[in-house]
Write a structure and sequence with these properties.
The protein has 324 residues and is an alpha/beta fold. β4, α2 and β5 form a beta-alpha-beta unit. It is globular.
Length: 324
């Protein structure tokens, strides 16, 4: 698989990454099972064989079970940790913690960030994270407090590089004024279905369809050398579903995706992934399927380069109108 350098770092990574949220689908406090370990081992080994080197986690995924499963695989696979890049996210807290009436919330306090990293390291059976991302913006965040946490985590060797997730251009700009470390990645929802971070530039003279929270984010990241990672790049399989019953413009877009897949002898998911890879921002899709066959099919996108006409045809079909 082709690779890319994460800006402001020494990390060379696969241009398609593996998302580990669904390694466990049991969001409860039960222990991980032998069957889960076996399935996780198969998915991770397939990803490595395909050339994927960046693995994306979050402390909340399956209430920590997904990190624990990955840690089990690392422990049972000597040498694997040295061949991969580990990334995790933190900052989301569940309701009911620490007290029964505590609401679900975001928490970028120094104490919570430090505690979250310790938990991820313990579950992952590793001494350090290559990247730590702040999961979702915390309206009560004190940027100076975040900066203090970053300094301590880097000084201790527990985190090498830092980034954000689901942050807008203005939110990134504010944080960058306080932290000494470069913010090297921003993970956002981005797919042909959720195309707004890309299409806002195309829709410059229209108000409909523009999501204010994404306005300028992609260009800001490109300008400041921040890798854009795309979560949910396959739109939960919506483009692979039967066309009957779909509403327009989804039906037209899915039909075109499936037609391009047949013409190129690849899966619909590979076409969707190739649509993101075709963008000059060097977007890194985070693919989270646990099915080895489906993951293999997705990674065919690494060798599929859409033409400019094909790329715009897909965007136009999904928008349901031509570009201005």
């Amino acid at each position: 698989m082709q690779t890319c350098r994460i800006p402001h770092s020494d990390l060379e990574v696969s241009r398609i990454a593996y998302g580990c949220m669904h390694l466990s689908r049991a969001w409860d406090d039960e222990d991980i099972t032998t069957a889960e370990i076996s399935a996780a081992t198969g998915a991770i080994n397939t990803a490595v064989e395909l050339g994927i080197t960046l693995f994306d986690h979050a402390d909340i995924y399956a209430r920590g079970k997904s990190e624990r499963l990955f840690g089990e695989v690392l422990q049972r696979t000597p040498g694997l940790r040295d061949r991969i890049v580990l990334q995790s996210k933190c900052g989301i807290r569940f309701a009911g913690n620490p007290s029964a009436n505590s609401p679900g919330r975001y928490d970028f306090s120094r104490e919570h960030l430090l505690r979250s990293v310790e938990g991820s390291l313990r579950r992952l059976n590793t001494g350090h994270l290559d990247l730590l991302l702040l999961h979702r913006p915390d309206p009560l965040a004190e940027p100076a407090e975040v900066a203090a946490a970053f300094d301590e985590l880097q000084r201790s060797g527990k985190v090498r590089h830092f980034g954000i997730s689901n942050h807008s251009a203005s939110q990134i700009s504010l944080l960058r004024k306080y932290v000494d470390q470069p913010l090297v990645a921003n993970q956002i929802e981005l797919s042909l279905l959720h195309h707004y971070p890309i299409s806002e530039g195309v829709l410059f003279n229209r108000l409909d369809g523009i999501h204010a929270d994404t306005a300028g984010t992609l260009d800001y990241c490109r300008e400041h050398g921040i890798l854009v990672q795309a979560w949910a790049p396959l739109a939960s399989g919506k483009f692979s579903a039967p066309l009957a019953g779909m509403d327009e413009p989804m039906r037209s877009a899915a039909a075109l995706v499936q037609e391009m897949a047949r013409e190129n002898n690849v899966s619909a998911e590979a076409v969707l992934t190739a649509w993101l890879l075709r963008h000059p921002a060097d977007i890194q899709p985070i693919v989270g399927t646990t099915d080895p066959a489906r993951l293999t099919a997705v990674c065919a996108a690494d060798e599929l380069r859409l033409t400019r006409e094909e790329w715009y045809a897909l965007l136009t079909a999904m928008r349901g109108q031509s570009v201005p």
